Amino acid sequence: MALLRRCLTVLLGISLLGAGTASTLAAAACLPGRAWLVRGAVLLQDPAAGAALTVPAEQAAAGAADVPQATPVPTPQPSPPEETPQSAAPAPAPTPQPEAAPLPSAAPELEDPGAIRAEHFEQGSGAGYITLDAGSVRNLTDHSDADLRAAIDTPSLPFAVEVDSSEPQVLILHTHATETYQTWPDLVYDPEFAARTRNTDLNMCAVGEQMARVLNAAGINTLHDATLHDSPSYTGSYDRSRATAQAYLEKYPSIKIVLDVHRDAIEDADGTRVKPLCTVDGEDTAQVMIIAGCGNGGSVPLPDWRLNLRFAAAWETTMESRTPGLTRPVMCAYRYYNQDLTTGSLLIEIGGHANTVAEAVRAGQYAAEALAVLLGGTLP
């Protein structure tokens, strides 16, 4: 067999002597024993190239069979698209499985840790604030305090929620779902950590899940969407969360309230992170802040913003009445946040990036309990 291979190599080389190296390779590759034939053909055309040509060991060893297996050519795969919601309304999404084990419950050794301080944010009063029976609203608009007071003092909510309904009444979602918290109580943070994670046990989905659990137990049919609208791309998050909310509203027109649950990020000028904190039943709990957008007739198109503000003030009052110290003043400002979707659309900040996960989940529970009471639900 070895002698036959050498003879075939020489004959092929002579017959193709006038051809180019590429043509020689193509011809040789079609014949049995092509690994050796290719080398012989190239030697005759270009001795230097032939000497440099390497025959894989597994092909040389397969000389008796003379038919080595072809290496499959991988098919290029397209890059995964951004997580854009489908036009059809998604079913209530189960919380995705976390990617990794939770972070340590005690601060690790950090080479250059950042500092954290706790602060309890008080309610406001005087010019620029509307004082409620419990809690307050901070006026960051050009409207007078009296104008906001007139909207807030209307006695009823701008919608009616049906308790114990088989149809969803509330939707909870997260435009910035990957926002996360500290996992240790120590007042230091890792400056290398961006305070974002896809782990749904540690990000905003954990807070939203707790809020949905409380509301459903109280008879307020609530859906929780755990889509990571800010992953893989932060840009366009609000467009994606809007599409998700619209799909739910199309499928479930019974939904009256859309809550976009976030966390804040407060820092001092020197980089110290601030965690808004209160104590409830002896446990550290994050403070919460509702943001109610105000339309400006142009770039912020919220023609019914006074109705959303009315809802925000009622929820603020109930939270602060039931759990004194839980809330920071409602922020009424020229913000959009997709609050035109319903007259019950609000954004709520649960703590900040310096709070712990446990503090935030507790705050979400108390905020949801107050909402359930406001809507006529029954707490277990």
UniProtKB/TrEMBL annotation:
<protein>
    <submittedName>
        <fullName>Stage II sporulation protein P</fullName>
    </submittedName>
</protein>
<feature type="region of interest" description="Disordered">
    <location>
        <begin position="63"/>
        <end position="110"/>
    </location>
</feature>
<feature type="compositionally biased region" description="Pro residues">
    <location>
        <begin position="91"/>
        <end position="101"/>
    </location>
</feature>
<dbReference type="Pfam" id="PF07454">
    <property type="entry name" value="SpoIIP"/>
</dbReference>
<dbReference type="InterPro" id="IPR010897">
    <property type="entry name" value="Spore_II_P"/>
</dbReference>
<feature type="signal peptide">
    <location>
        <begin position="1"/>
        <end position="28"/>
    </location>
</feature>
<feature type="compositionally biased region" description="Pro residues">
    <location>
        <begin position="71"/>
        <end position="83"/>
    </location>
</feature>
<keyword id="KW-0732">Signal</keyword>
